[in-house]
Design a protein that fits this description.
The protein has ten helices and four strands, in the order H-E-H-H-H-H-H-E-H-E-E-H-H-H. By secondary structure, it is mainly α. A two-stranded antiparallel sheet has the order 1-2. Helix 2 (29-58) runs antiparallel to helix 5, helix 8 (213-239) packs parallel to helix 10 and helix 9 (244-265) runs antiparallel to helix 10. It is flat.
Amino acid sequence: MAAEQKRGYQQLADLMSWDSNLAILPRFSSANMLCLLHRQAEISELEERLEDLGYVNNKSADENRRRLCNDWSVLKELGNESPEKKLLYELRTKLAEYNQAISDQISLAAQPSPNRSDMSYLQHWLQHPQGGANALRGPGSMTWSPVEDGGSRLDDFIDLSPIRNVERTVTQWVLDLLWPMIRHLPKGVMPAREFGPKDESGKSIFSSMGNNRVFRSIADQISSFVATTLMLIPVITLHFVNSADSRLIIIIVFSLAFQGLMVLATEAKRSEVFAATAAFVAIQVVYVGSASGSSQ
């Protein structure tokens, strides 16, 4: 069946596979937590039953029963139909399910939330007559709706795009700024893939640049250029300042700004931030010293 003939969730699945940036799904945080709480209650109940059974065995007149808590070979000889063995096997199964659910929840919580621009584009497609055309019905149909229309907050979703990064680096900020602009570029400026029904001219109103690794590379270059330019500003400023007190204040201000940018806009470690800031201060001091010496 052709993609344009599909409707509802089948068409939405095609859209999300066509552009991974639109593969936005709910976290179901509350539902996951509810299941975890029920699992821990089941495990707690099995633990209590095993403890009660152990207490009964310790008070038993049967010597083998009394040895159950101290000798594993006695438990082994009882066979798989014994109450102790059944409880242990059930406890193992529940614990394995609980531990796996915990691991899944940790992994899910670590996944980044989608960009607001991607969510807006998905909502636009869902409502557009040539897109989703508001075809979803029943439970879950309002999942991607705006908050004011009964939808969920952006933080309640995860983004399945493999190139998202949780860290808010300069590159990611530049990419977030560029991406909405890239989506609205005229067709033909950059190569794009089309999705959905086509008009009389053979073009679709929905297009994607596909994998944005190219744009991440462009964002890397832009952020590198901006960072280099920012490093030159203190030198230029110090060149036109003759007062020693003013130069000292400028060095302090630019050094604090540089350190703040290193902390907030990069993934550098604390030791790397300290070393980079120290080098930045040293460069300014050396420049001031050489400038002062040449002016005498």
